[in-house]
């Protein structure tokens, strides 16, 4: 018995010693663990379900569903569309991101007023429905790799416009997107900041939005994420689906080629 107790004491001391000399976790490791714990109960699932229901519902002045909406891969094809947006659409003559394209379909198929939707605050009215739809469309490509098309001259032009916007400095803080996301190993508020001038890796940066923000209990689309970046730069908010936000999406999306999408993700 005494020998067994001695061995137990040695084992306990070894455990304590190992704990005492263990390397402390980094803030990034702590945040990663926090997100992992929340993943199984990601409230984005509720928005995803709502978006699928909205896609199939007959709505709007024309009482039609969105099942004939062309997101770039043909009418009604959802899987794989998200990881190829923004892209050029011949019917509108524009490069469009997911949210802008959804509003186009809501206007042409269902009869909604696109200007009224664009003028609605995020999280309200039909704009909330656009976010739910975008969440479902994104989820339909979860695990797929980004491969934005660049064959059309406008797609290449928007990439270059996005690059210029990414590096443009201004406002009272003299900030640009690159101030936070233009170098490796930068961080703010205990959180690592991905370098978005290149492929940051699977599920990072562009490959993680739309995402549910735990800190404010809201589902954030990429358009809202970009709007908040402009707020932090102390710039005026850009208009919904403006050229600058779509161009920034083109720049980040092309740079993310090969990265695996985890959207809709969960953020702190």
What does this structure look like?
The chain has 10 helices and 7 strands. The termini are far apart. Strand 1 (87-89) and strand 2 (94-96) form a beta hairpin. The model is unreliable at 1-21 (pLDDT under 50). The strands form 3 sheets. It has a 3-stranded mixed β-sheet. Strands 1-2 form a two-stranded antiparallel ribbon. The chain has a two-stranded antiparallel ribbon with strand order 3-4. Helix 3 packs across helix 6. The radius of gyration is 22 Å and the shape is globular. By secondary structure, the chain is mainly alpha-helical. It has helices at 2-21, 27-39, 44-56, 98-108, 114-118, 125-139, 153-167, 177-181, 222-232, 243-255; strands at 87-89, 94-96, 186-188, 191-193, 211-213, 218-220, 265-267. The longest helix is centred in the first third of the chain and has 20 residues, at 2-21. The chain has one domain: Orthogonal Bundle (Cytochrome Bc1 Complex, Chain D, domain 2), CATH 1.10.760.
């Amino acid at each position: 018995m005494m020998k067994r107790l001695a061995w137990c004491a040695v084992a306990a001391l070894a455990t304590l010693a190992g704990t005492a000399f263990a390397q402390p976790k980094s803030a990034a490791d702590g945040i990663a663990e926090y997100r992992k714990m929340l993943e199984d109960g990601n409230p984005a699932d509720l928005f995803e379900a709502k978006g699928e229901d909205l896609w199939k519902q007959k709505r709007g002045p024309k009482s039609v569903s969105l099942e004939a909406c062309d997101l770039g891969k043909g009418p009604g094809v959802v899987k794989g569309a998200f990881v190829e947006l923004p892209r050029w659409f011949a019917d509108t003559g524009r490069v469009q991101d997911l949210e802008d394209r959804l509003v186009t379909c809501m206007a042409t198929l269902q009869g909604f007023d696109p200007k009224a939707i664009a003028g609605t605050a995020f999280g309200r009215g039909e704009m909330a429905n656009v976010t739910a739809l975008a969440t479902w469309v994104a989820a339909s490509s979860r695990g797929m790799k980004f491969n934005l098309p660049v064959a059309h001259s406008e797609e290449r032009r928007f990439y270059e416009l996005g690059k210029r916007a990414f590096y443009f400095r201004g406002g009272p803080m003299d900030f640009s997107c690159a101030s936070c996301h233009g170098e490796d190993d930068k961080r703010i508020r205990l959180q690592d900041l991905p370098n978005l001038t290149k492929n940051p890796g699977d599920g990072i940066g562009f490959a993680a939005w739309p995402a549910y923000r735990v800190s404010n209990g809201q589902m954030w689309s990429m358009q809202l994420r970009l709007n908040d970046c402009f707020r932090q730069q102390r710039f005026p908010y850009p208009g919904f689906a403006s050229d600058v936000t779509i161009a920034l999406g083109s720049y980040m999306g092309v740079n993310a080629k090969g990265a695996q999408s985890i959207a809709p993700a969960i953020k702190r």
